[in-house]
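Quick note —
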Amino acid sequence: MPIKYSKISDYRLKKLMRCFCSDIDATKTAEIIGFNRNTINRYFRIFREAILKKQLSDKKKFFGEVELDEAYFGAKRLRGINMPQQRGRGTWKHAVFGVFERDGRVYTELIPNAKSATLRKVILGKISLESSLCTDGWRGYNGLLDSGYNKHVRIDKSKSFSNKRGVHINGIESFWSFTKRRLAKFNGVKSTFMLHLKEGEWRWRKSTEEMEKELWILLKNT
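Predicted structure written out below.
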């Protein structure tokens, strides 16, 4: 349902947006607004779909100092399955690749594995060749110099997220922590994982007021 066809007033819609941007759950929002919980969930879904569309439409390449890392989302164990977790292969979790532009945007993409060919395809598509890349020592990042990235610094993440020269991947690690904390509040988001992932990407480091203003524009253009 496009928001422009909504029968609720702008006043109530903005109250809904305020709760959503403040990260208040649907049950509590239903009490505040006086709507049925299913109605709240329907509007929250509309908000998330608008955010997903907005995030996916951003084709501008990342530039400057850029941090790269992968993360895995999902249960540590699945009932009836005894499978070792292996970086880049053999895992039942959602593998997600993250790109963080220092003091700027963050981008996430679901990937089938963390092998060199997979990561390089995303990196070449999203990051300018003039950028300075900061990664850990995972072998999936081998060969980036040969791909045209002349500035690539690596750190040993098993010891620290930064080195003595101040090179670090603290930004993308902070984003992973933020996103996993948010997703932990939802008891299973298998069918809507992409919506919640991109919502976290959109929310990160924004104030409630910033999100409200941006979401209002997104909804009115939907």
